[in-house]
C-alpha cells in the first residue's frame, strides 16, 4: 500500500477520533473514599493523576485524620453520603500497635499473639461495619516488613521473631477477605521491595506530619491504587497481539531461515524462550494471544509447530494474521474476529515504525516497543496493571479453548449455504436460572467488562451483585448456552428490580461472543416469564448511550417498548408485559 493510502487512512481515522473526543475525555467517573490514620493529602494528587492517565475522573472523599471508625459507624456520615464505589483504607501499624514496631523485644509470646489478635479484630470490625452500610469495594493495606529487625541476624531464627510476627499478621488480615466479597488488599511490602525500604519510608515526614511515605513511595502507591479503579471499571486488557521476528524469536525468519533464528537455551535466544513462557502464563490466566506479523504464513506455522525450542505453538493463538497487509488493518480484523474492543488489546512489536503507526491510527490499542536490551523483554508487562482483575472466575482459564471452539464455528459458517441452516447446524441449547453464589464472580466480571451488548453499562462489585441476589425486591437472571462445538458458559445477565406492579430492568447484557445468535431473545423472554409469574403489569427499561453500545440502541424499540422519557444520554422505555414482542429462534433449544 502506498504512502498516500496510509495518509488517507490516518486522516479518516483522525476525523472520527476528533468527533468522539469530547465523549471520550473523562467518560469514566468514580467516587473514591480514603479512610486513614496517617496524613494522606500529599498522596491524593498522585492518585488523581494516575487515574486521569487512564481516562478516569475521581471524586475524592477523605475522612478526617484518624477518624476512621467515627465515619464507618455513623450511617449518616459524609463517607456514606458520598456513595463511594471504592474505599481505600490506609493504616499505619505503628499507630495502632506501637509495641509491635517499637518495643518488640520487650514482648513475650503471649503479648505478641494478643497484639496480633487485636489488630485482626480491628480490621474485622472495620470491614464488617463498612459492609453493613455500603457495597463499595474495600481495599486495605498490609504492613511492611522492617528490613532491620531489632534482633538483627537472629530474628529469622526465632519462632516469633519480629519479621515472622508481622508476616503472620499480614496473613491473618488477608484471610479476612476470603469469606467476604469485595474486600481486597494492597500489599505495601511488595511496593517496598520494588523501591527499597530506604526509598519507601521518610522518617522526617512521619515526625513532621504523620505521613510515613516518601514522595517516590507515594507515586508507586498511587499507581497501585489506580489499578483497582481501572479494574473496577472493566478496563482490563483481554488480548496480547504479537509480532514474530525479534519478538517471539530473534532474527528475521525470511532472511535467517528456521534454523537460523535465535531461539535456544543460550543468550540471546534464551530471552525469547523466557518471554514465551510468560505469555503462556497469561494464556493460562485467560488472556488471549494473537499474531500480527509480516511474514510468509507457511514459514511462521512451520516454526510454531516444528521448532524444538518453541514454547508456544499454533494452538495457543486465538487469531493469526500473517501477511503483508498494514498491521493496523490486521489488528482491526483480529478485534472483529475475537469480538474484543481495541481498548482491550496490547500490541507488541520491535519496529518503531509499526508501533508509531498503530499509536496514530488505532490510539485505543496499548502499544509496547520491544526493548533494545532483549534481556528486559520479560519485564515489559510488569507494573502496568494491564491484566488485573478484581476477581477470577472459572471461565477465565477456559477462555482460549472457547475461542478455539469459536474458530471451528466460523469454519462451519464458511461451508454453510445460508445463515439459517448454519445456526440450525450448531444445535444451540440455552438455560436461564436465577443467580447462584457460584455465579457471582462471573456475573460481576460481565457487568464490569461487557460494553457492546450492554444496555446501561453499569459496573457492579461482587457485594452489589450479592445485595441484588439477597433482596426481596430484586432478581438476577443468568443465561448459559452451548452447542455441538462446546459450551459458551455464562453469557447473559439481567438484573431486575420490582416496584409495586412494575418490573424495572436495571441491567441487560450479553457477552460479546454470544452476539448475533438470537440468545438475547431467550434472556428477554426469561424476564417476561418471571414478570408474569409475579403478576407484573408493566416493564420499564433504560438504554444509556455510550461510545461502545450503539449496537443495542434500538433494542427496546424493536421489542415493542415505547419511549417514556429522554435525558441527555439516557432513554427510558416502558411496555405492558403482554405487548413485549419476542421472537425466539426455532433453532435454539430452551432447557428451562
Content-based structural category: alpha/beta
CA gyration radius, whole angstroms: 27 Å
Morphology call: globular
Number of helices: 23
Textual characterization of the structure:
- It is a single chain.
- With 592 residues, the protein is α/β, with parallel strands linked by helices.
- It has 23 helices and 18 strands.
- The strands form three sheets. Strands 16-17-15-14-13-12-11-18 form an eight-stranded mixed beta sheet, sandwiched between helices.
- Helix 2 packs across helix 12, helix 7 runs parallel beside helix 8 (162-175) and helix 9 crosses helix 12 (215-232).
Secondary structure layout:
Elements: H1 3-24, E1 28-36, H2 43-53, E2 56-62, H3 68-73, H4 78-81, E3 86-90, H5 93-96, H6 98-102, H7 109-131, E4 137-141, H8 162-175, E5 183-186, H9 188-195, H10 197-200, H11 203-209, H12 215-232, E6 239-242, H13 253-256, H14 269-285, E7 288-293, H15 297-306, E8 319-322, H16 327-338, E9 345-349, H17 352-361, E10 366-369, H18 394-415, H19 419-426, E11 428-434, H20 440-449, H21 462-470, E12 474-483, E13 486-499, E14 502-510, H22 519-533, E15 538-544, H23 555-558, E16 562-566, E17 570-576, E18 588-590
Parallel strand pairs: 1-2, 1-3, 3-4, 4-5, 6-7, 6-9, 7-8, 9-10, 11-18, 14-15
Antiparallel strand pairs: 11-12, 12-13, 13-14, 15-17, 16-17
Briefly say what this structure is.
This protein is 42% helix and 19% strand. With 592 residues, it is of the alpha/beta class. Helix 7 packs parallel to helix 8 (162-175).
Amino acid at each position: 500500500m502506498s504512502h498516500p493510502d496510509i495518509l488517507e487512512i490516518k486522516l479518516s481515522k483522525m476525523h472520527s477520533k476528533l468527533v468522539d473526543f469530547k465523549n471520550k475525555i473523562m467518560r469514566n467517573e468514580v467516587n473514591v473514599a480514603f479512610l486513614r490514620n496517617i496524613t494522606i493529602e500529599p498522596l491524593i494528587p498522585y492518585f488523581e493523576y494516575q487515574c486521569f492517565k487512564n481516562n478516569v475522573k475521581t471524586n475524592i472523599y477523605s475522612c478526617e485524620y484518624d477518624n476512621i471508625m467515627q465515619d464507618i459507624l455513623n450511617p449518616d456520615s459524609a463517607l456514606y453520603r458520598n456513595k463511594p464505589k471504592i474505599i481505600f483504607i490506609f493504616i499505619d501499624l505503628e499507630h495502632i500497635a506501637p509495641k509491635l514496631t517499637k518495643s518488640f523485644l520487650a514482648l513475650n509470646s503471649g503479648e505478641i499473639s494478643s497484639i496480633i489478635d487485636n489488630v485482626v479484630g480491628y480490621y474485622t470490625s472495620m470491614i464488617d461495619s463498612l459492609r453493613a452500610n455500603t457495597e463499595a469495594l474495600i481495599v486495605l493495606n498490609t504492613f511492611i516488613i522492617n528490613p532491620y529487625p531489632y534482633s538483627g541476624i537472629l530474628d529469622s531464627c526465632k519462632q516469633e521473631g519480629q519479621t515472622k510476627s508481622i508476616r503472620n499478621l499480614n496473613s491473618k488480615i488477608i484471610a479476612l477477605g476470603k469469606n467476604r466479597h469485595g474486600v481486597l488488599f494492597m500489599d505495601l511490602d511488595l511496593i517496598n521491595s520494588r523501591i527499597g525500604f530506604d526509598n519507601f519510608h521518610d522518617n522526617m515526614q512521619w515526625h513532621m506530619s504523620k505521613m510515613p511515605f516518601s514522595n517516590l513511595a507515594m507515586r508507586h502507591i498511587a499507581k497501585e491504587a489506580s489499578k483497582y479503579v481501572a479494574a473496577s471499571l472493566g478496563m482490563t486488557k483481554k488480548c496480547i497481539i504479537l509480532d514474530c521476528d525479534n519478538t517471539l524469536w530473534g532474527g528475521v525468519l525470511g532472511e535467517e531461515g528456521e534454523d537460523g533464528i535465535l531461539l535456544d537455551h543460550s543468550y540471546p535466544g534464551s530471552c525469547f524462550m523466557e518471554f514465551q513462557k510468560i505469555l503462556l502464563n497469561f494464556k493460562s490466566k485467560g488472556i488471549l494471544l494473537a499474531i500480527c506479523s509480516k511474514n510468509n504464513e507457511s514459514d511462521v506455522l512451520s516454526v510454531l509447530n516444528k521448532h524444538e525450542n518453541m514454547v508456544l505453538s499454533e494452538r495457543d493463538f486465538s487469531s493469526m494474521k500473517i501477511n503483508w497487509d498494514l498491521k493496523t488493518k490486521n489488528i482491526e480484523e483480529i478485534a472483529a474476529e475475537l469480538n474484543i474492543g481495541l481498548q482491550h488489546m496490547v500490541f507488541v512489536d520491535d519496529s518503531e515504525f509499526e508501533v508509531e503507526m498503530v499509536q496514530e491510527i488505532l490510539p485505543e490499542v496499548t502499544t509496547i516497543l520491544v526493548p533494545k536490551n532483549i534481556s528486559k523483554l520479560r519485564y515489559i508487562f510488569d507494573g502496568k496493571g494491564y491484566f488485573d482483575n478484581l476477581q477470577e472466575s472459572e471461565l477465565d482459564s477456559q477462555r482460549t479453548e472457547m475461542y478455539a471452539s469459536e474458530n471451528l464455528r466460523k469454519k462451519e459458517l464458511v461451508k454453510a449455504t445460508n445463515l439459517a441452516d448454519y445456526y440450525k447446524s450448531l444445535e444451540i441449547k440455552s438455560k436461564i436460572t436465577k443467580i447462584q453464589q457460584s455465579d457471582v464472580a462471573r456475573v460481576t466480571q460481565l457487568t464490569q467488562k461487557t460494553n457492546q451488548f450492554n444496555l446501561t453499562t453499569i459496573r457492579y462489585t461482587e457485594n452489589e451483585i450479592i445485595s441484588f441476589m439477597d433482596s426481596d425486591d430484586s432478581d438476577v437472571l443468568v443465561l448459559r448456552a452451548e452447542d455441538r462445538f462446546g459450551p459458551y458458559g455464562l453469557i447473559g445477565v439481567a438484573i431486575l428490580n420490582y416496584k409495586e406492579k412494575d418490573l424495572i430492568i436495571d441491567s441487560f447484557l450479553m457477552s460479546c461472543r454470544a452476539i448475533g445468535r438470537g440468545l438475547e431473545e431467550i434472556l428477554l423472554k426469561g424476564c417476561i416469564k418471571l414478570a408474569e409469574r409475579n403478576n407484573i403489569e408493566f416493564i420499564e427499561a433504560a438504554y444509556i448511550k455510550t461510545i461502545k453500545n450503539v449496537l443495542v440502541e434500538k433494542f427496546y424499540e424493536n421489542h415493542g417498548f415505547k419511549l417514556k422519557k429522554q435525558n441527555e444520554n439516557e432513554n427510558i422505555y416502558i411496555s405492558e408485559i403482554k405487548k413485549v414482542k419476542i421472537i425466539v429462534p426455532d433453532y435454539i433449544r430452551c432447557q428451562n
